[in-house]
Structures are given as structure tokens and as C-alpha cells.
Amino acid sequence: MATRITMPKLSDTMEEGVILKWLRKEGDNVKQGEILVEIESDKADMEMEAYDSGVLRKIVVPEGGKAPIGALIAVIGEPSEDISALLSTAAATTPSGPVLQKEPKSPASQMGRPAPQAAAPAASSIPPPSRPTDGRTKASPLARRLATENNIDLARVSGSGPQGRVIKRDIEGVLTSGVGNAARALRPITPGTSADVELSLIRKTIAKRMTESKMTAPHFYVTVEIDMDPAIAFRDQINNVTQIKLSFTDILIKAAAAALMGHPGVNASYLGDKTRQYHYAHIGVAVALDDGLVTPIVRNCEQKSILQINEELQNLIERARIRKLKPEEYTGATFTISNLGMYGVEEFVAIINPPEGAILAVGTIAEKPVVKAGQVVIGHTMKATLSSDHRIIDGAAAARFLQDLKRLLENPASLML
Amino acid sequence: MPLSFCHIVMRIVIFEFPELICIFVSSLRRDSSQQVFHNVSKSGMNSAAVAVAPKTQSSRLLGLSPEVLLSWYDDMLLIRRFEEKAAQLYGMGKIMGFCHLYNGQEAVSTGAIKGAIGPDDYVITAYRDHGQAISKGVDPKAIMAELLGKYTGTTKGKGGSMHIFDREKNFLGGHAIVGGHIPVAAGVGFAIKYRGEKKVCLCFLGDGATNIGAFHEGLNLVGLWRLPVIYIIENNKYGMGTSVDRASAIDELYKKGIAYNIPGEIANGHDVLDVYKKVKAAADRARETYEPTLIEVQTYRYRGHSMSDPVHGLYRSKEEVEEEKESDPILLFTENLKAEGVISDEYIEEAEKRIKKIVTECVQFAENSPEPPPEELWNHVYKDSSGA
Amino acid sequence: MAIVSLREAINQAIDEEMARDERVFLVGEEVANYQGAYKVSQGLLQKWGPKRILDTPIAEAGFAGLGVGAAMAGLRPIVEFMTWNFSLVAYDQLVNNAAKMYSMSGGHFHVPIVYRGPGGAAHGLAATHSQALEALYAHIPGLKVVMPSTCKDAKGLLKTSIRDDNPVIFIESEVMYGDKGEIPDGEYTIPLGLGEVKKEGKDLTIVSWSKVLAHVVWKAVDTLQEELNVNIEVVDPRTIKPLDVDLIVNSVKKTNRLVIVEEGWPFAGVGAQISHEVSSRAFDYLDAPIERVTQEDVPLPYAHNLEALSLPNVDKIRQAVKRVLYLD
User: Fold this and answer.
1) Measured between alpha carbons, how far is C135 from A10 in angstroms, rounded to an integer?
2) Is the backbone peptide bond immediately before C242 cis, with ω within 30 degrees of 0?
């Protein structure tokens, strides 16, 4: 009895997948349980096992091919049975599974903040365009000559001829839109070109989720400046005495977890008719990838030591960077921390990852003059901004949480408890 | 079988007009002192030429002076030795492309050209043209240089073996497309008549050329307009490798003129005197009356069609070739002259030396001559017009 | 200036040259008694007599070759082909004798001959009687090929051709013989190898010749200039070989766009040669690929609609013009 192998849903936001590699070819025997295919989801690259034994009769979607969730990607069956009936229904089915609930749009709370940024920066280099080009600029011989004669960079002229061919009128356009003869003596301004980058699955997911979040949750922002000298000293102590290399993120996570335990209102999700307050802190840490970001989660931070958090986080980040996270490792956070401090950013505001209620954005630890005991001394401070969902968190709650967080970070010994 | 072609066929044909008696005897070998006329007359605008064929048994040397006869001897010998040398040079790779040799046919060229016509008369021929050019007085040194592709050749090395030309000698080539020159000959005759000149154009062609379209179109124009052209078919029995009886619907090629109101006759190509006599009669008539003639000269080539063609073994037997050599025209003429006391052994020996020397000089001249310079490539494509 | 028909212009050229040079004579089918199959030689027999105006049998190879021989022997023949379709029977004489005699003979014998007659399509004459064969002759070194599009050009060029010491292929058109045009009074000639800008323009160049220019291109130019608001330059090479490449190239350098309109077939046609010349010599001046409008690559059918579909027409020219102007 032949069975249809369909595109699995490998993350809660996945809508389509890309076949990366078939580990068996048509005609091979397949045993139930062995890995059959590698699939790219919007989050990570996943291995899929065969659920039935048999002969891999037909590969419907080849390597590199895309298919929506539920679409037929292969057929396993007996060597000689007729599978034509299964193949004829290979048309893609609509994705099944839970779809993110779309909240009715409500005006986002501006609070005078600048335009919201993504929770983590995009990679600084533009990836090569995925549409095939051969790199040549098509231009008529006349256009080429005119461009050369007028010191115009042909590659930056938009062509109106067939297949984007640059022709005489395009060069003339550049010339006549210039500022006149005097300016022509300077470098002429060319309109410039653009490159289209196809959206990867991750990018599409981020785009969708961040839009939903911003349009749905009324964001407001509260910032505190934290004296980090104690944390620095604390970290130095540990790093000098043990083999461990603690990072400030580890300390921050522990502090946040402790603070969240004291403020369940911030460690919560808006569920429409109710608020769910969590009694555990699964904290996600935003990690930048080439074409997006992912937030691996350290679970139950409230119970884990800083050391544990440190080890887990290293492992998660490593695997996040090579896109080998399991779904349970990036779903289910109750709170997220995003750090742009390594870029010298002083402070910023982040967008809440739904269905969480808040997200903490931290900046760099900056050396600056501070006032201690009435004196101006050199100190180290860090700014942390909490974005909160005003549907379930009010300003005072946010402020109180931050107060606690600050206290914990400024007294790191308390984190050892 | 080709050899049956050698047998005598006797027929008597009597035509309507009682003053004409047509008798023909066709003998391919030694003694055809008899000739054949086929005369055709028709009612209508063009009246046929009426030719009376004398039965000849006058002096075998036709009253020609020894100087003249010996000059013919020299001419034939020169052609023979020249062609033998050309064969040798071809084998050495000094002559390229096609080279068609005249060995065995010398009497035709000498008798018709050197004997029967003058310097003002025109000769146009196909590609077996070395002998005819020599008989017409074209400098053999220049011919040899042309064969070697040198700048001093008759056509600056640009024509080669098949395209010997000489304007001064009224030698109009040297044509490689079978039959292509036949209408051209008609044009030469046309020009003569147009200008009212007393000249004739001899047009040589092979037996194979009597089957191609241009032969018929050319002869028809000559016959229709009565142009002073003598078409001389050198019937050496084979086209390239195809014998006449396998190529032509009729074997008697001289009859092909009937369709075009051109009288036809046969001449013995092994007898220079016979060729001379018949061509001279036709030429004289043409000059006076602008009447054309078709003469089939029965001859034989000892070598292959060209240097790329086997002498024997493929389409003719070695025995046939050897047998034919027994009627070598130079041999026969020598015997004839000896019999009449015109030529001596001393002369023969001296002539041999002299001719050999001439040929050697030709080769030396040719070999020492330069090739045409590169810019010659672009010359003579168009002629600058004088505006005439 | 006088207004004459094309046949009269050609007749005058022949007549004048025969008067000027007694070596000139005319042969061809029906040129004498019949007064010319298309009446081009009307009156010439009466004037010059049967010695110089001769009817030939239907034997193109024969009389084309006769012309070569007569020319080699010092005369200056004009050989008429009733149409250029029939010249193919004489192609060997033209290509292997006429074209090559001067070269093969190393300069001994030149062939001052004019082969003339109508070529190209008329109406409903079907495949073997409608051919535009100039490419077959232009391809051969040693020949000159001339194709006038006006009465003035025809007379001037024919006189020059007759005086030229080379074999000249002079292609007329039977559907043009009745066309009227102005010719200058008195003696005049037009040199071979010299084209003419028949109309100045600036937006694109059309190169065309002979009947297609006279009967199709001018119509297209009038229509399209208004329709598309463009100014078209028209270049008539007049002589196909040797081709006035400079004239064409200079025009394209000015307009940056070229459309060639010809009646011949596209493969290895004259337009292909012009394309090559322009693309190599005016490469940096081309704003669009060169366009050709030719007859379709099929033997010409008889049916009226198919014939019209195959031959160049205003609409095909429109498409080509729009393409080079990027207006499609």
C-alpha cells in the first residue's frame, strides 16, 4: 500500500519548505525511522524520517525545490504497485496547522520614539541576488560610446530598451537631467540601480511576525541606566578564578529571570480574554544570522545557575548560527533579551516577540563619568530599555520590573542565591 | 567495345539535291584521304552552304613547300616534347591543379592552326590548350611559366594550364567549363561579320562537349546567323573515362551540325595534311562567305584525360593505347616526309636537339621567374574604364 | 527637364550610346521585330537595322556567351534577358566567362558587356518568374550590379554601364516601365558605385533600391513619418556592386538606426551584406540592431493574398521602423 510523503510542518510559522537533500534515491529501499530527507524550514534545516518502510518509488519535489506544507514530495510503496493515483493528486494542499492569530490592528503607542527597528540588525552585507544575472550591462553600442564620452558609469544607468538595454535616450536622460555645464565638470550624478534580494523563509517569517506584533500590541518603552561596575567586578572574579568565561549576557539572563519571578505581570502573554502569567522564565536571546535572526531559548532560567545558563547558551548560539536548532529550542519563550551593545549602541527599542508581553533591549557598557558619593568618577553604565505590551503591562509595572532588574545587576552577588 | 569503333562502316546516303553526292567512309587510322561531307539544305530564309567534296588523290604533300612542311614538323615535335616535359614537371609537383596533355593530337593543332589559318584569325579552345597555343605562336616560355604559376606566364600566373591567353596572337583561351566557350566562339564570329572583316574563328572542342547545352545553343546561333566559325571536334574517343558511344546518341559527331544547318565532315587527326586541307578549305570559305563548318577530327590522346587520370587500365586497355601509337601523327608525317625526300635523318636529329634546347630554356625561364606579387591578387577584377 | 517613362529613359540610353559608339549593339529575345517584350527597345530596329538590333532564339546560354565572345573580340554588346529569371540558364556564361575573363586572362581580354532586363516580382507570375536575384550576381567578383529606382537614374546609369569596360548586370523592373519621371535634358551620365540620399532625415535610415523603393518604401515613408512623427532618411545605393558603403555608413552615423528594405530573400541577400558593412563600420553609432525587411524565405506563390504576404509591404516596414525606434 503506497504512502504519500508530504511536506511536514517543522515550525509553527512554517508555511513552505525547501528540499535540501534527498538521502535516498528513487528505487532505494527505505526503512521506517531512517532519515529520508533534509528540509529547510523558516527557522532551521531539519531532518525528516520515513514513517513507513518500502521502496522510494518517486521523488516528486527534487533537491532545491519548494513545496507548501502538506504538498506531496515523494511516494513510498511496493516495487511494482501502481502509484499513478497518488501522483495525480500531487497538487499542493493548503498548509494545515495553527496559524498565528491575527489581532485586530490598534494604533501603536508612539511615545515619541523614533521609528522602530528590527530586534536585531540585518547582516551588513547584501547577499548576492538570487535571480540569475550574468553581470553584463546591456547597452547599444551608441549608448556605450556616449556613456564613455560623457564619463557616465553605464552600470548605474537604468535601461529602457528590451531586456533592460541602455539606449541613447537613457544616456540623454542622464545628461539632460544634470545640472548644466558647470556641474558637468564635476562628477555627474547617476540615478543608480537597485538589486532585488529574494526573501528567505526566515526573513519572511520575521517580516510577518514583527508586523503583527507592532500593529497589534500597543508598545511603550521604559529605559533605565544601570551601573555595571559591580557586574564587571563580579564577572572578573569568576572568570579569573575559574575556567569559565562568563559573559554579561549570562549575568543579564539570570538577573532578568530573577526579576521576572518577582514581576509575573511582565512575564506574561495577552490571550485576548485573559492574561497568562508564567511562573517560569524561558528567556530567548536574539542571535543575528546572515539573513535574519533567531532567538534560541534557555528554559527555566529561574532555576538554573549562571554557569548552566552560560553553557546552554553557548551551545544554543553555536547551533543557531548553523541553523541546527530544534523547534522546541526557539519556541515557547516567555521573555526575550536583545543586545546591540557589541556595536556600540547606547540604547534602542525592540519589538516584542509575540506572544510574549515584553522584550528587553540592552546597549553597550560605556565608560563615562558618573556620580558616586557626590564625586564625579569614571564608571561604567549600561542602558536597558523595556518594550511592554500595554494591554497587559502598565508603565508602573514596567518601571518596577526595571527597578528590580537594576538592583539585581548592581548587586550581582544576589544572583548566586 | 571501343575497338569496334575502328572498323569501317560504309553507307551511302543520297540527298534530295542531285548535284550533291554524299559518300562517306570513316576510317580512323592511317589512310583516310577521303572525306565526308554532310550537306543539308532547307527551304527557308537561310540557304545551306553547298560544298563539293573533291575526291582527293593529288600530291600527298599538297604542293606545300619544304620550309612550310618542316615548320609543321618542328611545331608538332615542339608540342610533343613540351607536353612530355610538362608531364615530368607535374610529377615533380611543380605544376599544380589540372594539366591536360596533347600527346597524340599534335597534327590537329599544327594542321589547323599553324597550317590553315593566319595570325589575324582567332583561335578559342577548351582546356587541352598548350599545343594549340604553341601552334598559334604564343611564346612557349611564357606558356611554361604560366604552368608553373609564375608572373611571367601568359596570364601572369593567374590562369594556369587551362587558361592560356594571348591577345596579340588572337588566342582567346583556354576554357575549363566543358562547352562554355562554344557560344563565346559564336560571338567572335559575330564580331568578325559585324565589322565585315575577312577573318575566321577556329573553335576546338572535345567529343564530350558535343552533348552539352551550350554546344547546341552556340551552333544554332552560328548556323542561324551564318557566322564565320569553324567548330573542330577533336574526337579522341573518350570524354574523361566515358567513350563516345556511351555518351552521345550518335557516334558520328560531324552529323550534329545537321540540326543547325552547319555542314559537317570528318578529318583524319593522325594525318596533319588531312587536317590542314580540310580546315583550310573551311576557313577560306568562311572568310569569303561567312559560312560555318563542323569538322570532326578523329584523333587519340596517348595520356589520360588529365594528369590525374590513368593512362590506361580504367576505361581503356594498354593494348589499345599501344596500338594507337602505331599511328602516331609525328611518326606518320616523318615517314611521309622521308618518302617524299623532304626530311633527312640529320634534320631529324638536329631538330630533336634544337627542340629539346628550346624546351629546356622554357623550363629554366619558368623556374627562374618570380611568382606574382601579392598585390596582383587584386588586379584585373575590374578594368578601369576609359569611358571609351 | 523632360518627363518620360522608365522604358523611354532606357530606350534613350541605348539609342544614344548606339549613336555614340558603333561597336554597341543589342541582342535578345523579341528585341527587334516584336519591338521588345516590354517595348523597351521600341523603334530601335527601325532606326539601327537588323545588323545592330538582333532577335535571338530562346537560348540564353547561347546568346549570353555570344555576347562574351563579341566583347572579347572588340564589340560592346547589350544583351537583354527577357526577365532575369531566365538568366539562370546562362549563369555559367555570366559567372565563369563574363565575370572572370579579365582576371583569368591576366588582363588580356576584358568583357565590356551589359546584361540588362527586368527582375523581381510583378503580379501573380508565381515562383519562377518573380525572382529578385541581385544577390546571386553581386556575390561574384568581376561583375558590377546596377539597379536604378528612377527614370533619371536609369538613363544615366545605363549609359555609364554601356561605356564601362566590365560586365555589368543591369536590373530593371517590368512593373516600373510605365512609371514617369523627370530626366535632365541633354547628355548626362551617372557614375557607377555612387549612391544617393534620396531624402534627408534624422531619426532613422532606410536603405532600399529598385522597385521596392519606388513602389513600397516611399509609401511607407509618407505614412510612417506622419503616424510616428519621425523624420526618415532614405538612401538609394543605385549600384549594388560596387556598393557605396560610405554613403550608407555616414547616414547611419547620423541617424543611429538602419532599416534595409529589399525584395530578395533574406538568406545571404544584399541586405545581409549591408548589415555587415554597417555593423562593422558604424558599430558605435548603432542604437538598435539593424532591421531588414525582405521577401519571406519561400518560393513566391501565385495566390494574390499569399503573394502580398510574402513581399515587403508598408506594414512590415512599419514593424521594423518601430523596432529600431523602440516604439513597439
Assistant:
1) 69
2) yes
Q: What is the pLDDT of residues B314-346, one digit of tens each?
A: 888 888 888 888 889 999 999 999 988 999 999
Task: List Cβ neighbours of B370 (8 Å cut-off, separation of 6 or more).
Answer: B150, B151, B152
Tell me which DSSP letter residue A139 carries: B
Q: Pull the grid cell for residue B278.
A: 580540310
Checking if the pLDDT of A282 tops 90, the result is yes
Cell of C234: 532614405
CA pair distance A320, A398, nearest whole angstrom: 30
Interface of C with A (CB under 8 A): 256, 283-288, 326
The CB density around residue A417, as the number of other CB atoms within 10 Å, is: 5
| Cβ atoms of A286 and A340 closer than 8 Å | no
| Active-site hit among C129, C196, C215, C296 | C129
Residues (pLDDT < 70) of chain C are none
When the pLDDT of each residue in chain C is averaged and rounded to a whole number, the result is 96
Pairing between β-strand B293-298 and β-strand B264-268 as defined by DSSP bridges: parallel
Q: Is the CB of B381 inside 8 Å of chain C's CB atoms? A: yes
Euclidean distance between CA atoms B133 and B188, whole angstroms = 17
Chains that touch A (3 or more CB pairs under 8 A): C
Q: Among all chains, which residue has been given the C-alpha cell 573542330? A: B232
Residues 52-91 on C with a CB inside 8 Å of B are 54, 56-57, 59-77
**Which of A111-115, A319-323, A372-376, C202-206 is the most confident on average?**
C202-206
Q: Does A62 touch chain C (CB under 8 A)?
A: no
**Sorting pLDDT into bands at 50, 70 and 90, what band is A385?**
very high
Contact criterion met (CB < 8 Å) for B183 and C109: no
Whether B184 has its CB under 8 Å from any CB of chain C: the answer is yes
**Sheet strands (E) in chain B:** 10-13, 22-25, 122-124, 201-206, 229-235, 264-268, 293-298
The CB-side HSE value for A356 (13 A sphere, CA atoms) comes to 29
Cis status, amide bond into A355, omega within 30 of 0? yes
What is the count of residue pairs from A and C with beta carbons less than 8 Å apart?
Answer: 27
Output the nine-digit C-alpha cell for C259. 532599416
Total beta-carbon pairs less than 8 A apart between chain B and chain C = 168
Give the pLDDT band (50/70/90) at residue A178. Answer: low
Q: Does residue A49 surpass a pLDDT of 80?
A: no
Closest among A245, A220, A262, A257 to A385, alpha carbons compared: A220
Q: What is the ipTM for the molecules in this complex?
A: 0.89
Q: Which residue among C60, C80, C174, C233 is the active-site one?
A: C60
**The sheet that has B293-298: what strands, in order across it?**
B122-124, B201-206, B229-235, B293-298, B264-268
- Cell numbers that stand for B365 in this block: 625561364
Asked about C215 being catalytic, the answer comes back as no
Q: What is the mean pLDDT of residues B40-48?
A: 29
DSSP assigned state of B54? P
Is-contact B86 B130, C-beta < 8 A? yes
Average pLDDT over residues A51-75: 86
**Set of cell numbers at residue C28:** 535578345
Give which of B258, A274, B190 is closest to C26, Cα–Cα. Answer: B190
Distance, CA of A412 to CA of A406 (rounded, Å):
10
**Residue C188, number of CB atoms within 10 A of its CB:** 12
The β-bridge relationship of strands A283-285 and A335-339 is: parallel
Q: What residues in B contact C29, CB-CB < 8 Å?
A: none
Q: In chain A, whose CA is at the least distance from the CA of C324?
A: A161
Q: Do C102 and B383 touch (CB under 8 A)?
A: yes
Please report the pLDDT score of residue B36 as a whole number. Answer: 33
Q: How many CB atoms lie within 10 A of CB A75?
A: 23
Query: In b/e form, how buried is each residue of A395-404, taking b as 16+ CB within 10 angstroms?
Result: eebbebbbeb
